Amino acid sequence: MKKKIIIIGNMGYVGTVLVKYLRQKYPNAFLIGLDLGIFSHCLSTNEQIPETKLDLQIFGDVKKVNSKILEGSDGIIYLAAISNDPMGNLYESLTTEINYNSCIRWAEASKKAGIKNFVFASSCSVYGAADDSPKKETDPLNPLTTYARSKINAENSLKILAEKSYQISCLRFATACGMSDRLRIDLVLNDFVFSALNTGKIDILSNGKPWRPLIDVYDMARSIDWALHRQGQEFLTVNVGSNDWNYQVLELAENVHSMIPNVEINLNKNAPVDNRSYRVDFSLYEKLAKNHKVNFTIQESIERLIRGIESLKTKKFSKYDFIRLNVLQNYLEKKNVV
User: Fold this and answer.
1) Phi/psi of residue 175, each to 5°?
2) How far is CA 326 from CA 192, 194, 198, 330, in A?
């Protein structure tokens, strides 16, 4: 029987990689993407657009459930989100609507349609300010931003919907990094590599001490595949990443420096304390997803970023398009939303 998989929010940084991964892994699957297309032009590739890998691309507002596409589907992946703290803080109501309310509407409709698996892209940012001990799934949460609160609210509401015939997975991802055909440079490691290559400098806005767990976007795609097919608990919240990928911000800059010679690292020693600092324990994921554990090393992610960003010099591109807040603001202003 042919698989039918739906990706809500497929035209972003993660969805772009996920679509290519799923098509390669399941060449005969029927893949559907639904996205408003705000970031569709933010391409960082000279190849065909990723959506050519889909069987059906629907351009639509994720806030409105399209029940027709749910019929006969095996799994649904909810990636749609206002996807970082600056965007969430500026557009709080929109963040709540897309990251939380719309997610639950799709989850309820999916359950009603008889879909067996729902995968939600959550975030390790729910741990917020934390002490030095790596945070486990059972530890108290300390969200500091609208973005983090929206993820927790969605997790809590999804838990109520889960049952034996409707399996729900909430993947608390580490901070994303790595090359995508729709690159983002508003992510810490990606920003450092982009800046090193284009300015010869890495400017760290903090004192470099905050902790950040990272995961390559390709390993994120592999974990989503695992969640779609996992066996076991009807509802699961799990930290997704690797214990080897807990880094302080300065360490990330030093790793980039080791691979791009003659780069100057500038610390902001007078910066206010960045409370968004947390280490995360990924032991549960490594235990459950033995065949989907993180494959990439930070050096491999940096190397792929270097190759990808260098290739952009052969085509016209705008750094503006790789910063999601810029693109979202421009879209909303044109639509007279703000």
Assistant:
1) -60, 130
2) 18, 17, 19, 6
Instruction: Give me the pLDDT at residue 205, please.
Output: 85
Tell me which residue of 22, 19, 27 sits closest to 2, measured CA to CA.
27
- Please name each of the domains of the chain with its CATH number: 4-334 (3.40.50.720)
Other beta carbons within 10 Å of 84: 21
Beta bridge mates, 7: 33, 77
* Closest to 75 in 3D by CA, of 5, 22, 15, 27: 5
pTM of the complete model: 0.95
Query: What pLDDT does residue 2 have?
Result: 67
Any alpha helices (H) in the chain, and if so which ranges?
13-25, 85-90, 92-96, 102-112, 146-161, 188-199, 217-229, 249-259, 283-288, 298-311, 324-334
Structure tokens at 208: 């470099």
Beta bridge partners of 248: 211
Residue with tokens 């990606």: 190
Q: Which two tokens stand for residue 106?
A: 């799709």
End-to-end CA distance of the chain: 47
pLDDT tens for 312-324 read 876 666 677 888 8
Q: Which amino acid is at 76?
A: I
Contacts of 126 (CB under 8 A, 6+ apart): 141, 142, 143, 148, 151, 152, 155, 172
Q: Which positions of the chain have pLDDT values less than 70?
A: 1-2, 85, 130-131, 274-275, 314-318, 336-338
Between CA 56 and CA 63, with CA 60 as vertex, the angle to 5 degrees is: 130
> Residue 294 is encoded by which pair of tokens?
């993180």
Condensed to tens digits (0 to 9), the pLDDT of residues 168-206 reads 999 999 999 999 999 999 999 999 999 999 999 999 988
